[in-house]
Write a structure and sequence with these properties.
Elements lengths: L3 H15 L18 H14 L6 H15 L3 H13 L4 H9 L2 H4 L1 H13 L10
Length: about 130
């Protein structure tokens, strides 16, 4: 049986692997208004979903980026996901192409927002960091 502390540690490790620079931004300062948020984010999203290994990390980053672009996700989430996609080995050109592939389904406004965030991204591609 998995101990809750182990689950959170796995979630933190996965968050750090895919987005060490921006991952903490999603939880910083929210404990005061939503004490369970960090546990839900780290436990469910990162320990349970992101840690699955059926798809390689690179493909998981593509799926997440496409979904967030299609949903018109807020800049904080999109920025963190572009960062993690680059760390997972995608090039800026591949991230751009993934965003362009959402155009027929999500429309120009959402794609423009994601492309602007990519344009302004300072994360250097680290093909083998993740």
């Amino acid at each position: 049986m998995n101990h809750p502390a182990d689950r959170l540690a796995r979630g933190r490790a996965m968050m750090h692997l895919i987005s060490p620079r921006l991952g903490g931004d999603m939880t910083d300062g929210l404990h005061e208004v939503a004490p369970d948020f960090e546990e839900l984010l780290l436990g469910f999203a990162f320990a349970d979903v992101w840690a699955r290994d059926v798809l390689p990390l690179r493909e998981r980053a593509l799926v997440r980026l496409g979904a967030l672009t299609a949903l018109g996700a807020p800049a904080t989430a999109t920025r963190a996901n572009i960062d993690s996609a680059l760390r997972a080995g995608l090039s800026r050109e591949e991230v751009s192409e993934a965003i362009l592939q959402t155009l027929p389904y999500a429309g120009f406004p959402h794609a423009i927002t994601s492309l602007e965030i990519l344009r302004d991204s300072t994360t250097p591609p680290s093909r083998r960091d993740a």
